[in-house]
Amino acid sequence: MDFLRRMFGGGNRAPADNALHLYVRCSHCGTPVHVRIHVYNDLAVEYDDDTVAGYTLHKEIMDAKCFRLMHADLSFDRDRREQSRTIAGGEFISREEYERLMTTQPRQQ
Ligand SMILES: [Zn+2]
Fold first, then answer.
1. Three-state SS annotation for 30-94
2. What is the 84 CA–ligand 1 centroid distance (Å)?
3. CA 26 to ligand 1 center in whole angstroms
4. What is this structure's pTM?
5. N or C: which end of the chain has fewer CB within 10 A?
6. Residue 33 alpha carbon to ligand 1 centre in Å
7. Domain extents for the chain?
8. CA of 60 relative to ligand 1 center, distance in Å
């Protein structure tokens, strides 16, 4: 029975600082972007009748080079655990890849 757990949002399942870090790269110019998502403030609730079925996040991400928008869509279960993610205009990369790109890319300004 996960009824009570569901009511209180799963408690300890969420990341310690309630943050989800997205690392993406613009498919147009290749610029890496880091986005911090607050899993309690930024997620939209999806209802199945009267109960919470899960959460979704739509995020528009813009890099600082070509300023094209990337559209990320993520879905989460009722414990705010990520279920799937898609992105248009860019690609998801790992944190390691992001950090590598940041150190190899010439700095703007
Ligand atoms: Zn770009």
1. CCEEEEEEECCCCCEEEEECCEEEEEEEEEEEECCCCCCEEEEEEEECCCCCEEEEEEECEEECC
2. 23
3. 5
4. 0.77
5. C
6. 9
7. 3-104
8. 13
